[in-house]
Amino acid sequence: MLRGHRTWVFDQKPVIVSTGTVGGPFEANGALAEDFDLLHSDLWLREDSYEKAHRVMIEEAAQKAIEKGGIQKEDVQFFLAGDLINQITPTSFASRSIGVPYLGLFGACSTSMEGLALGAAIINAKGAKYVLTGASSHNAAVEKQFRYPTEYGGQKPPTSQWTVTGAGMALLSDKGEGPRVTSATIGRVIDMGLSDPFNMGGAMAPAAVDTITAHLTDRNIDPSYYDLIVTGDLGQIGHEVSLDLFKKQGIPIDDSFYSDCGLLIYKSDQPVLAGASGAGCSATVVYGHLLNRMKKGELKRILVVATGALLSPLSFQQKESIPCIAHAVSIEYGGGNTP
Fold first, then answer.
1. For strand 15-23 and strand 228-231, is the pairing parallel, antiparallel, or unpaired?
2. CA of 28: how far to CAs of 11, 125, 219, in Å?
3. Which of 105, 107, 248, 329 has its CA 20 to 30 A from that of 184?
4. pTM
């Protein structure tokens, strides 16, 4: 299964049999609203805290994925998921009602592809027949923890990004019809010394480039093998930085087939500054919009590179720099052989 230094190639090609995506009011007005299974009209979801509302979204996305997969939750062997809140409490608390054996993950905004990579590895090794995996974030809960409460009304710099309110879940299986997970490249922690929590994209870009470069090297393929290479939430700043780094390294990647989930989810007139962010960003865009495009035949091979900033409120207060990571997973649908 190991190819090169840090890439798994899955000979069983686990299938994404179904997905569930849930969003909030800002996402309901976004560019990809039609690709969500469920959209809410407010941030509270009839709960008395944003963190509890966050938990509800996870439960709803998980339930949607299981229902659409045509199985019962008792059929799922493992649930691999995480979020951005302290001790991933929304996901852990949601697991009480989901009732599936649970492995909590924290890779910040890279969690979606961390979970998909690990879930595919478990399925590929015949360790399970069904694995549920995903990630989520809630704008008001995350902003309160990492920056300022939204009620404070603090002005943000143009490098900052809008945290997605959303949850995306995927149900993986060893059989069935649907897009297949063909490989995964595990990221290294990269820290270039940046410490600004309002410039996550710039901090994460080198980690994305490092993982993409390793993936291409380990699999001995050209970037053009993919119809689309998409990062998780670099936003406009990080996207431009990564393109500059690819150019310096002589890697032929450009905007014709390289994009970012944080640049896709919202409309151009929404006030998101440098774009979207959050663990729910890549999870909802991939498990909603991009897999829908694959099923329509618009895309056959994509490489999803979820990016994460591994800081905490404590590390920021202690004036630490921001370590970052990116995990890449290739998803294929329709003909062709995997190298």
1. unpaired
2. 38, 39, 38
3. 248
4. 0.96
